[in-house]
Amino acid sequence: MKKLTSIGLASAISVLLVLGFALSGCQKTVQVYNVKNNPIIERAADKSVATVIMEAGSSLGWEMVQSEEGSIKGRIALRTHSAVIEITYSDTEYSITLIDAQNLEYDKESNTIHRNYNGWIKNLENAINVRMVPL
Asked: How far is CA 125 from the centre of its chain?
């Protein structure tokens, strides 16, 4: 009987530990991921940096608008969620910064947002980097 109880207690503790780890991984908000001074190693000679960025964003569902030389505004809207970003760029680097977000639990003071937003930005960053390399 003692073995059963100790095995039962060990199992219960194991289950509680697993649940604790699983629930801690379900955190909805995280620090906002901004891309800062990402270097442009090389790019296709026939496309400007602005064109590459705008094509990359558009391919992922972002509405991209050149706001001024060296700056592009991007907006994505999925169901009731939306985010607005600014992408500043030169011939040697680019940065992506969150401007505003709706229904993404964005807290400007603590610089936190729903974790899905960071995935969108990482996808955009990857799409830009892939398109920069000439074929």
From this structure: 8
Only one residue has tokens 């050149």, namely: 66
Q: Which of 104, 102, 127, 99 is nearest to 115 (CA)?
A: 104
Q: What ranges in the chain are assigned the alpha helix state H?
A: 2-24, 49-59, 115-132
Amino acid in the structure at residue 8 = G
> Is 2 exposed, middle or buried, given 0-12, 13-18 or 19+ CB atoms closer than 10 A?
exposed
CA 77 to chain CA mean position, Å: 14
pLDDT digits (tens, 9 = 90+) for 72-107: 999 999 999 999 999 999 999 999 999 999 999 999
Residue 63, SS3? strand
What residues contact 14, with CB distance under 8 A and at least 6 apart?
none
d(CA 108, CA 86): 16
Q: What DSSP element (H or E) covers 65?
A: strand 63-68
